[in-house]
Specification:
This protein is of the alpha+beta class. The chain is built from two helices and three strands; from the N terminus they run H-H-E-E-E. The radius of gyration is 22 Å and the shape is elongated.
C-alpha cells in the first residue's frame, strides 16, 4: 500500500511539472496575441485616417508600455493620399522569468514585431 502512495505522488509531481512547463510556454504566446491585437487596432485607425499622427503613435507606445512591453519602436506615415500603400512597423520586447532547470528561473527577453501594409482609403459618410 505504501508503494502505491509513493508512485501516486511521483506521478502527480510529474503531471504538475508538465502542466507548469506548458503554462510557462503559452504565456509569451498570449502576450504576442495581445501585442498583435493592439497593433491591429492602430492599423485600422491608420487606414481610416490615411496615416497615423504623432499623438496616435505616442498613444500606441503608451498602451504597449502599460501592457508590460519595453523598448517600443513605432514607424508609420503621418499622412498619405487615398490609394497609397502605408506600412505600420512596431517592435517591442517583453521580459519575463522562465524555467531554466528544475529549481532555476532565468530572465528571458522576447522580441515581438508587427509589420503590416494597408491602403489609405477615402471614407465617405452619406
Amino acid at each position: 500500500m505504501a508503494e502505491r502512495a509513493v508512485v501516486t505522488v511521483i506521478i502527480f509531481l510529474i503531471v504538475l511539472s508538465l502542466c507548469l512547463y506548458i503554462t510557462e510556454n503559452f504565456i509569451p504566446i498570449g502576450k504576442n496575441m495581445d501585442f498583435r491585437d493592439i497593433c491591429r487596432g492602430y492599423l485600422m485607425k491608420m487606414e481610416y485616417c490615411s496615416g497615423l499622427s504623432a499623438s496616435a503613435c505616442s498613444a500606441l507606445v503608451t498602451e504597449l508600455q502599460n501592457q508590460g512591453f519595453e523598448d517600443v519602436a513605432v514607424s508609420a506615415p503621418s499622412s498619405a493620399k487615398a490609394g497609397a500603400v502605408m506600412t505600420l512597423n512596431v517592435i517591442a520586447t517583453v521580459k519575463r522569468d522562465s524555467i531554466a532547470g528544475i529549481f532555476k528561473r532565468l530572465p528571458k527577453e522576447y522580441e515581438m514585431a508587427y509589420s503590416r501594409k494597408t491602403i489609405a482609403r477615402k471614407v465617405v459618410n452619406r
